[in-house]
Amino acid sequence: MDDQAGQRRVVIIGGGFAGLFTARALRRAPVQVTLIDRAAHHLFQPLLYQCSTGILSEGKITAPLRELLRKHRNVECVLAEVTGIDPERRQVHARRPGGERMEFGYDYLVVAAGVEQSYFGHDEFARYAPGMKSVEDALVIRRRVFGAFEMAESATDPAERTRWLTFALVGAGPTGVELAGQIREVATKTLRSEYRHIAPEDARVLLFDGGDAPLASFGPVLSGKAAAALTKLGVEQHMHSIVTQVDGTGLLVRDKDGKVTRYEAGTVLWAAGVAAPAVATAIVKATGAKCDRGGRIMVGKDLTVPGYPEIYVPGDLMCLDGLPGVAEVAMQGGLYVGGHIRHAAEGHPSDKPFRYRDLGSAAYISRGSAVVSVGKLHFSGFIGWWVWLFVHIGFLTGFRNRIGAILSWWFAFTRDLRRERTYTVREVGIVRDVYTSPPPSPANDG
Amino acid sequence: MDDQAGQRRVVIIGGGFAGLFTARALRRAPVQVTLIDRAAHHLFQPLLYQCSTGILSEGKITAPLRELLRKHRNVECVLAEVTGIDPERRQVHARRPGGERMEFGYDYLVVAAGVEQSYFGHDEFARYAPGMKSVEDALVIRRRVFGAFEMAESATDPAERTRWLTFALVGAGPTGVELAGQIREVATKTLRSEYRHIAPEDARVLLFDGGDAPLASFGPVLSGKAAAALTKLGVEQHMHSIVTQVDGTGLLVRDKDGKVTRYEAGTVLWAAGVAAPAVATAIVKATGAKCDRGGRIMVGKDLTVPGYPEIYVPGDLMCLDGLPGVAEVAMQGGLYVGGHIRHAAEGHPSDKPFRYRDLGSAAYISRGSAVVSVGKLHFSGFIGWWVWLFVHIGFLTGFRNRIGAILSWWFAFTRDLRRERTYTVREVGIVRDVYTSPPPSPANDG
Hints:
The structure is a homodimer. Chain A is an alpha/beta fold. Helices cover 34% and strands 24% of the residues of chain A.
């Protein structure tokens, strides 16, 4: 792309909801946009758990960033890993695949890098209990879940078999609840009649959380309905429970009375907390910005870092008014930031503050059951599920992915088919080896 | 599954077309069947190149073996790697994921293990020039092909950029021809408008083969039409050409006059020859069976190994009457073997020899162009393409995969969409590192 003389340069770090919506809002602005992401695709994260449990392929919950932005002639996508930021010289440092350095100067910087999984200071848990933030994570979890049933089938020791049929989920927010429900559905529906030495429906799914109830953020009414639906599905809920240790064959959990119990589990999945990525830490260090306990950066009403009016932080990495780290906040934040930059670049800066319009939240429990909260309206059970379906079809990126997802859901819901589950001896062996070999250094290989 | 007293035990090695069709033909036979595969899925190999170029997801060209055989109550699937065979004690040795040994006794053994890629004694080429036999291979190739355009985009050296935009294919059989056509389509259609510093349609695709013409096995008429269609598509064909060296940045090729030329190419893909897997070599050694140059085992008219009437070899690994290693031969061989075993187990052995009914062959060149040969009938161009479409829809495994493939084809053909192409900096970096780091030992990491 030829440089347009005099045009301002916008660098966006991250192609998630916040970064993509910023780029889209800049379509007709007199700026040159560079969107840097370490993945080539935009991910529709709210459906990632369906990729990790075999319903949807990677291609249905992602869309190539280059394809989404190909008609935006002022946008250039760069596949690179951001390694540092120099706010004084207004430069972003990155590395292309293979390692060579790249540099990007900017007039406006949009830090939409999202968040990573937090193990609350116990990064050594990561190799035993993977989190689920990226497509790569989802594929790891898919192999672990389906591989656990394989290991149970070929186990000769009854204790080993029981262990492989026990799944522990840490964190009862939407991701933990959705994964718990899906694993029970895999066990009771998808795998029915597939095994000869085990009964997959015997699989135990344990859900641990430090709070009072699953989906606490949905309020007591929906939270209670979710808890009842999970119980009916066979998910064993352990609330007021803090995980203090995870190893190759299980975990230690402390309950509210301080009693510590050990659970044997072949599969432990982590959906408990978020932490800022290295790039956010670098920004905090370089700008002196403040951040919350999770490392999220505190911004002003215009989503900029105090003292740096050219650095915006929308999305999950933004800390403002207690807004939650959900897709809707990121989309609206991206649109706001794009508009704000466009106004400034066009010479008539806006002083309108960011205002979030709450469109509600939704979580899928199992086939035919979901909880949805829209303002003062609450939906649960079968009606909630239909609302969930329409909302997710509407928000999925692109017509092709929508129609493909409807088709996959049709076969999953009516015929129990989960066809996206290829794995080999080697891949299941790697899963298994995590539990038997000594940890690598550094401990976090996630 | 409870052992049925007195029932014969059948062990099938491999869940490809030959193994799966053997198991299916044994559905109502009074035998206990154990199907061992190192993958959990049956693969529809004729469409693997569409997985490696982003049109179809893994789930559309595979189906879980357990799901396909769940109603076959006399069949047990085992996810394991076969490590050896003892024909005297009639035992198969294997390892489950993670490494523990397993043993399976048999009364009948069906060796349907298929073939691997052959580098004609140059296994050190494998790390630079991956072959395409499994889903894992296809995903490696997908990252290499799409990653090469990324590397070209971010290259600053013009020579490096040109190298990344050059793709070399070794072998002009169906796989090489189909990959060549797909890469040109990716470059000219899918990636159109996606890049800012390169013109993807500049990508050169070089096709090398030692023979006279591409798709020589289809006969001179169709072969000529295929060559013309490839030329029109922009594929540069180098026939009578032997690849003598492959390294990190290109390959050496000797033409029929003995002249050796070097071609710089960032991506080299191998589709040139087949070799027997270790399990076949073990059988040859243990039984004294004869094999051809490619390691395929010579069998009698009943597809058994001479001197071992209880060991059958159907499929790609079978050497009989010059029959080609194609899906149709494997399906018919599997059905024959299953029937033969059933008759024997029921106490009235059959002496009917295997007879192959040639249903023709087909190769896809590009959108709207294919060559199909059915007996004396030949189809090419647009008509050939429609025949190809109906044949492949008809043979795909299961209604769900058929309707999903039709949907993906619709979007690929009408809107140039290839949505199954997720990759990250790390994954493209691995591709890149293959070209810069010293080879591992053993040399073949493919």
